[in-house]
Amino acid sequence: MADEALITMKNRIKVLRAERNWTQADLAQKLDVSRNSVNAIETGKYDPSLPLAFRIAELFGLRIEDIFQNKE
Amino acid sequence: MPLTRLPAWAYLIAGMIPIIVLLFVGEMMPRQVTLILLALAAVWAATLVAYHWKRLDEAARAAHRWAWYWGGSTGLALAIAAVGLSMNWPELATAFAGLAQHFEGGKFSSTQAHLFLGVLFTGGMQALGFLGAWIIWWLTKR
Question: What span, in angstroms and rounded, lies between the C-alpha atoms of A24 and B4?
């Protein structure tokens, strides 16, 4: 699948979410996305857009690069 | 819940209702009235589908785009292949003609029946392809 070649990110969303005792549904509601989307992002199978990455970073009070890193 | 914050699927259903209703009651009204109402229903549907798209989150939009590109185009290719097959496989063409006969008569002329069935077949193949690809996209992102 072509778009999977573009997925080069890993992230700390699961850890950050667990630290706050949020479920995937809680996070999905705060970000106004579906729980499926949160799961796909969290497991690194879908890279969020830049605007959504900014929303995630803002929600956790961190910089984008503190949450998302290159896989390599 | 405000009307602008309904779930995405709700806009899709609301958009389709007038068209579905008109499909059933359209024949009871004068043709011109039905055509005007159908045009209004189409505008309504387009507006609500736009809201549906706006309410989808980005992963769901990505799934739709991927599914239409790969699934929809594969379905179209298979439908075209079926036309090619029917040229070398007369039984297939005969079965298609037999199906078309069911639609001929009251509403459809023979040409319209074949056209209707062709559109139905092609659209159906694309829809099936879309559905399959959409399921694959979400299964691979679980």
Answer: 24
